[in-house]
Inverse folding.
């Protein structure tokens, strides 16, 4: 069953078309990658699916329901979590507290029960802390639990965002360039983490530049170029697709470095 | 064992302070001094709400004195003119102030940026005029007088002590409840929102809802402070709720610091006592007292600027830094 159905999604910014009639399906339980040269529209697509942006045209359906234009927090509650290319951590809070904030949609204590320290609020807080610690172990950050997020080594910040997103108990995880800034050992760690997340029952959608990682972990890939979908399929076919090769060769030819 | 001590130390210190504060009338016989300490308590109640709004949720209000005014006039009118019993009047006053806060926050917090600051400023200007012009309720410039002192049934306390205990008993209760909110799930959502709005949204937090809740809560506490002010002072006049009062309240939370109740409470104590420095330091020369009182507004202004420049996280931030350094070396 398709868990995400992107249909004819178009997004224009003034005269610029960032996305032009993009359609594809993401299926339950797969690791799905969105790739493409810089400026292909990948981040715009992510922002639309996660509710941070609205499409100019087209629709997004999640588990068969139209979610176009639904606000981000409501989508998180419905089961769509995301990480950011530019990490959006709570810098002053500890690593553990960052994950605890992620538990917000799955905990309930409101103003009154928190103010009165009602037993169920205290119990919920204790259970949430245990769960947050478990998630930190899962991503390998347990030793940093009481470190302020601002002091976390750069390569680990994305892992914390993944742990925080996992805390919301997502059905779909949108990861925006999770391997950016990671060395090869850390990227291997990330790949195994992605498998573990997928095996825990979440569908993963990745925007990623690291082709090695993409080809290794993806079940399915969509390639965007200048706002249009130019290819779709399993890694084997994408690697051989002439349109994809040309899009990337074009980028290399125009790059300065 | 040392760890357990350290963990419970803040609670033990808070409980001890609460006992000392509530027992103070036994040691202080000077009526005027007791009244000054009562004013400190009134500001502590308002500042507890602002500590949540500004220190946690990061929202600036330039008009909280107006909510204090709403609470004061509502409670004063209901007790002195409508003959309500004081506890019912206090509850109604808090509800009216909270409703005012909600009505102001709902439209303005949907907008991004500094609209809340401007809206609260405008709101306090409008109410400043309303307090003078709505003579039928407020008594205009003459003020609203004849508010009966609260009766405590069988308890026969002298008025100064009764007022002091009413205010500080409420303040201690407010701080206890507020600390639960600060440390619990709602406080964490506010802190997160202040840290990164996008990050908070990605955690399922609705920014508008959280900001509106924080604002309404702070307006309710300002209203509570105003209601108790009306009851204990017995007289309400419009000058008490001018812009200057809002700025003083803001100075207290800025100096007190972010993500903390203790910091803003300490700042509220210090800055309120500055106004009544003659009562605290009787030995101080008349000239020095006059100087401090004349330049009060400037002192508050300098405090805000200095804190913003040198310690943006306020007293609480400095305390956190010191604690981290000490913890690291031991």
């Amino acid at each position: 069953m398709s868990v995400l159905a992107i249909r004819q999604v178009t997004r224009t910014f003034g005269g610029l078309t960032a996305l032009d009639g993009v359609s594809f399906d993401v299926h339950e339980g797969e690791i799905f990658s969105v790739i493409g040269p810089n400026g292909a529209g990948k981040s715009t697509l992510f922002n639309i699916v996660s509710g941070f942006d609205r499409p100019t045209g087209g629709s997004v359906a999640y588990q068969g329901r139209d979610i176009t234009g639904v606000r981000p927090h409501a989508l998180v509650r419905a089961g769509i979590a995301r990480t950011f290319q530019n990490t959006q951590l709570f810098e002053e809070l500890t690593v553990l507290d960052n994950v605890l904030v992620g538990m917000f949609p799955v905990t309930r204590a409101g103003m009154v029960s928190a103010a009165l320290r009602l037993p169920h609020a205290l119990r919920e807080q204790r259970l949430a802390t245990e769960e947050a610690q478990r998630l930190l172990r899962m991503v390998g950050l347990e030793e940093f639990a009481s470190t302020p997020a601002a002091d976390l080594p750069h390569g680990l910040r994305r892992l914390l965002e993944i742990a925080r997103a996992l805390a919301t108990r997502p059905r779909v995880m949108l990861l925006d360039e999770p391997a950016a800034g990671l060395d090869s050992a850390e990227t291997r760690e990330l790949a195994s983490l992605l498998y573990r997340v997928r095996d825990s029952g979440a569908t993963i959608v990745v925007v990623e530049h690291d082709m090695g990682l993409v080809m290794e972990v993806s079940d399915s890939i969509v390639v965007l170029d200048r706002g249009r979908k130019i290819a779709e399929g399993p890694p084997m076919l994408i690697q051989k697709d002439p349109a994809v090769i040309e899009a990337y060769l074009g980028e290399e030819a125009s790059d300065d470095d | 064992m040392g760890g357990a001590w350290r963990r419970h130390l803040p609670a033990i210190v808070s409980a001890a302070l609460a006992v000392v504060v509530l027992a103070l009338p036994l040691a202080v016989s000077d009526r005027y001094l007791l009244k000054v300490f009562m004013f400190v308590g009134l500001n502590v109640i308002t500042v507890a709400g602002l500590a949540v709004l500004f220190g946690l949720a990061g929202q600036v209000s330039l008009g909280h004195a107006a909510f204090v005014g709403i609470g004061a006039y509502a409670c004063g009118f209901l007790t002195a003119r409508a003959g309500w019993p004081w506890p019912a009047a206090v509850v109604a006053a808090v509800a009216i102030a909270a409703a005012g806060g909600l009505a102001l926050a709902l439209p303005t917090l949907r907008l991004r940026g500094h609209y809340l600051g401007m809206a609260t400023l405008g709101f306090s200007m409008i109410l400043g005029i309303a307090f003078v012009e709505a003579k039928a309720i407020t008594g205009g410039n003459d003020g609203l007088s004849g508010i009966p002192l609260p009766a405590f049934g069988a308890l026969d306390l002298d008025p100064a002590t009764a007022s002091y205990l009413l205010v500080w008993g409420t303040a201690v209760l407010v701080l206890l409840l507020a600390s639960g909110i600060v440390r619990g799930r709602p406080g964490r959502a506010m802190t997160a929102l202040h840290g990164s709005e996008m990050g908070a949204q990605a955690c399922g937090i609705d920014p508008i809802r959280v900001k509106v809740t924080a604002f309404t809560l702070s307006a309710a506490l300002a209203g509570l402070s105003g209601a108790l002010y009306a009851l204990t002072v017995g007289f309400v006049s419009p000058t008490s709720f001018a812009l200057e009062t809002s700025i003083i309240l803001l100075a207290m939370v800025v100096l007190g610091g972010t993500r903390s109740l203790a910091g803003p409470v300490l700042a509220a104590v210090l800055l309120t006592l500055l106004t009544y420095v003659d009562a605290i330091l009787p030995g101080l020369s008349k000239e020095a007292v006059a100087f401090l009182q004349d330049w009060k507004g400037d002192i508050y202004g300098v405090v805000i600027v200095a804190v913003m420049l040198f310690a943006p996280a306020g007293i609480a931030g400095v305390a956190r830094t010191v604690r981290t350094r000490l913890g690291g070396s031991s």
